[in-house]
Structure formats: structure tokens, C-alpha cells
Design brief:
With 169 residues, this protein is an alpha/beta fold. It contains 5 helices and 4 strands. It has a single domain, classed as Metalloproteases ("zincins"), catalytic domain (Collagenase (Catalytic Domain)). Helix content is 41%, strand content 18%. Strands 1-2-4-3 form a 4-stranded mixed β-sheet, with helices on both faces. Helix 3 crosses helix 4 and helix 4 crosses helix 5. The longest helix has 16 residues.
Length: 169
């Protein structure tokens, strides 16, 4: 059985609008479908446009708003892809975690205002949009990408399969 530690941090202005329990279930569902290790730690931040814009500029060199950013502890690069040569190996030394402590998977940052805007434009709920963005972000953490057509098709298939699952399963 997979054991995941999911840490949720929501900016105060968005706390009444999003359930940490629900976000945790979205992450756990995606990880249980796609992650082939026994456990891990994943952080989620529900942020504002300014914060995500600053992160996008600092880490991707793009001075623009975006809906979701993923920072993987397992794969390197702006877009991690499924090329396992990009998998981060223990280059200089082996770091051993204490018993019961899971390896970090990464961090997903979502812009709540951008998610709300996209939900309104798509004609679905903000929860549906957050679920989509969070699932998408988790897939990036696990090495999925959408830069090439065949990669995009695999990622879309995984995303659709995960989204079709009932959160209570």
C-alpha cells in the first residue's frame, strides 16, 4: 500500500474557498495511479498570480502568469519529460532518510485567480479546474510532459484516466 504525505499551503485569502482534505484526495488519487514507489512527500501551494509569476520568472525565465508550476525532486528540467536520463541520481553521495520518512516527490503551485478565470472561460466549476491543474501538476512531477505530440498524448491519457476516477475509491 502506498503511503503519501501531502502538505497543503493555501494563501489566507483562498483558504475559505478550497478544502485541504479535498486537495489531498486529488493528489493521493493521482499518485496512487501513476507513482510506482511505496510512498513520498508532496507539497501543494494554492497561490496568487503575483507569486506564481515571480516563480515562473525565477525558475523558467518566463515573466508571465501561468496556472500551475511543478517542481520535481525526481526529475530535472523545466519540462521533465519521460526521458529517464533526466532522472535525478544521487550524484555526489547517497542521502539516507530515517526510517518512516518518505522521499520528497516535489511541489505543485497553483494560481487560484488563474484557475478561477480558466474555469469561467471553460464553463465548469473552480473545483473541476483545480482538480485538473493539480492532476496535471502531479503528472509533471512524475516525469510526464507535453512538449512532443506523443508525450502530450500519453500525458492527456493519464490525466483523463485519473480524472475519471471517483475521489472516494
Amino acid at each position: 500500500m502506498n503511503m503519501f504525505e501531502v502538505n497543503i499551503d493555501i494563501l489566507p485569502e483562498f483558504e475559505p474557498l478550497v478544502s485541504t482534505i479535498w486537495l489531498t484526495k486529488v493528489v493521493e488519487r493521482a499518485l496512487s495511479c501513476e507513482f510506482n514507489q511505496d510512498g513520498g512527500v508532496l507539497n501543494v501551494i494554492v497561490s496568487d498570480d503575483e507569486t506564481i509569476r515571480q516563480l515562473n520568472k525565477k525558475y523558467r525565465g518566463l515573466d508571465e502568469n501561468t496556472d500551475v508550476l511543478s517542481f520535481s525532486s525526481l526529475y530535472r528540467g523545466a519540462y521533465y519529460g519521460e526521458d529517464f536520463s533526466n532522472k535525478i541520481d544521487n550524484i555526489s553521495c547517497e542521502f539516507v532518510l530515517p526510517p518512516g520518512i518518505f522521499e520528497p516527490i516535489g511541489e505543485v503551485v497553483i494560481s487560484y485567480p488563474m484557475a478561477l478565470h480558466q474555469a469561467q472561460n471553460s464553463g465548469h466549476s473552480i473545483l473541476k479546474e483545480l482538480e485538473l491543474l493539480l492532476t496535471h501538476g502531479v503528472l509533471h512531477l512524475l516525469g510526464h510532459d507535453h512538449e512532443k505530440i506523443e508525450e502530450a498524448a500519453k500525458m492527456t491519457d493519464a490525466q483523463n484516466r485519473i480524472m475519471a476516477m471517483n475521489l472516494h475509491q
